[in-house]
Amino acid sequence: MGLSLPEQYPILITAGNLISKINFYYIFAGLFIYLMIRPYIYYYKNRKSLAPGPLPLPLIGYWNIFLIGDVAQNKYNLSEKYGEICDITMFGHRCVIISSPKYLKELFSPSVHSPYLRRLPLTSGFIELGMDREGLLLNCDIPKWRHNRKFFQQSLSPPSFLQLCTKYTVECCEENIDYWNCIIKDNQNQVIRLDEWFRAFTSDMMGLVAAGSKEASMKIQFMKSTNQIYKEKKIEEEENKGEIYRRLRSEYADALGFYIFVPKLLWNLPFIRVAAKYYKNILNYLTDFEIQFIKERKQQIKIEKESNISGQNSKVRPDFLTMLITQNIDDDPSPDEIKQNIREMFSAGTGTTTTTLCSIVYLLAKHPEHEERMVKEILSVIGNDDRITSSDLPKLPFTEAVINESMRLYPVVPITYRYSPDQDTKIGDYHFNKGTIFAINLSHIHRNAEYFENPDQFIPERFLGNWKERIPQYAFSPFGHGMRSCPGKNFSMAEIKVILATIYRKYTFKLVNPNEPIQFKFTLVNDITKMEAYIERRK
Ligand code: HEM
Fold it and tell me: Transmembrane ranges (predicted)?
């Protein structure tokens, strides 16, 4: 009798086949992923307070909002979806997106003792950039930040400085107008890249105001747009130095993005290592360059002081750098501190103004009735050819309303941050542990229908008259609020007003693609990507 197979044999065979087909690597990988995800689900469900928000991803939390799409738009969408307080996690840091002015009193406190004097926690990128302890923007060392803020503010505040800025802005506008007149001489309806022109303008302008450096950005922009080669319009030696400085600063802007967004953990990987080394070199060149001209200026000031040279005979320009050096004794602030303050004046003051100017042109081109009213006001105050002075600026309320309304719809800093490493916070019904980052969603707040009727429409009139009584304080914050608000606010408002007044009385602009939305790229601020417009002489 032969061996008979057990009845369940076919079933065993099938099971055996199945088992042999299972790849145990997948099982282990699945188990590993489950074990990684589990703490996040646990954390999500058991947070001390349950503010709404998306489920954090394993290890990276909600870091994908930095990796996919536009960060500012992603945060805007999260506020739309989850409401006024939205809880996310980024690399182990709890981050709360706030999009209502109701919760900002404490975070935007104007007190020197506020626990929210820091903007963001310390990162290895900030340390590499030296920004953790120098300058203002990302300085986490509060005594040092206070020290610098005092010098920064004192240098920008004197009325004489504002007058000087107005004068420099007018000079740059006149140079710009010369170039534009040349460009449209034979060809009305010429297309120009407004983003590039405004970038060149703000760069030259800031060069004069910050460090007295004569730059040639507009000249180069002119040559580029008219296809002239550099040799035809010679770049002077002084301008050449300015051009090197401008290029180093532009590379520095890329370095900022690298150090802030690429974690140190990755700096030694192939390819990334090359970039890390390149940016390190850029930082070193830029520092050497800056320290050199700060020392030269200090020396010049010292010599003139000792020889009692002043007024017309002085060769020292009365710019921000001179202000920083002369308002103190001995070596305080040190060349390193001065260097960082100057650097931040450039990085915080050029892109922001460029984007704001482009937004204004964009909105006015879409609303010619508001442009007409603004131009009428400008002509009635300064006429067709007179030079604008700082005393004319308060007489332009509608122009100011246009600027405010543009900054409401397109705030160049769509999100600002506050952070306390040592104090728990209660916001609404929610409790947040110390170390939580608060992302204040200015762009979302600015479009809140509770405070702005027809929030998506361009209505400059809402900023006329006693608007500060009608609009709650924190509902409109293009320059932030409190101790870390923008120290360049008055300067920028004056600069933008002068530019609009000088340019709009001569020209009008039509968008090349009027149906396209305005395009920004968010790094730390919203940068305009491209804006083409037809430029026409005003009749
Ligand atoms: C349209 C132009 C500008 C806009 C819309 C703007 C907006 C802002 C905003 C929203 C902040 C953050 C405020 C907060 O967190 O409460 C800020 C900070 C800052 N801005 Fe501006 N800004 C502009 C131009 C300038 C200019 C021209 C300068 C330099 C003169 C400047 C220097 C700074 C600095 C140094 C900080 C950091 C302050 C600190 O942390 O203590 N900004 N700006």
Answer: 24-43, 55-72
Binning the chain into helix, strand and coil, the percentages to the nearest 5 are 55, 10, 35
Contact by Cβ (8 Å): 345, 236: no
pLDDT in tens, 324-362: 888 765 656 677 788 888 989 988 999 999 999 999 999
pLDDT at 314: 81
DSSP code per residue over 404-442: HHHHHHS-SS-EEEEE-SS--EEETTEEE-TT-EEEEEH
Greatest mean pLDDT range, 33-37, 141-145, 358-362, 436-440:
358-362
Letter for the amino acid at 103? Y
Domains of the chain: 145-537 (1.10.630.10)
Q: Which of 18-27, 147-156, 167-176 has the highest mean pLDDT?
A: 167-176
Mutate to test the pocket of ligand 1, among 417, 479, 496, 526 (most ligand atoms within 8 A of CB): 479
Q: What does the longest C-alpha to C-alpha distance in the chain come to?
A: 126
What is the pLDDT, as a whole number, of residue 232? Answer: 47
Q: Which of 154, 152, 119 is nearest to 138 (CA)?
A: 119
